[in-house]
Amino acid sequence: AGAAQTPSIQAQLLAHRARIHRERRDLPAALADLDQALAAQPTADDHADRGRLLYALHKHQEALADLDVAI
Prior knowledge:
It contains 4 helices and no strands. With 71 residues, the protein is mainly alpha-helical.
C-alpha cells in the first residue's frame, strides 16, 4: 500500500477512473466514482461529467442540477 493521498489527488484519480468506466460503457461505476470524487473535492468539471452521466441514465432532473452547479 502506498502513502495516504490528499483529497485533491484522490478526487483526480477517481475522476480519471470514472472517465475510463464511461468509455467502457459502465455508467453506474462511472457515476459511483464521480460521486466519490465530488465528495473528496468538488470541481465544476466533475459536476459537468456527472450531469452528462445522469442525462445518459435518463435522470434528467438530477443531471440539470449538476450542470447548474458546474456553471
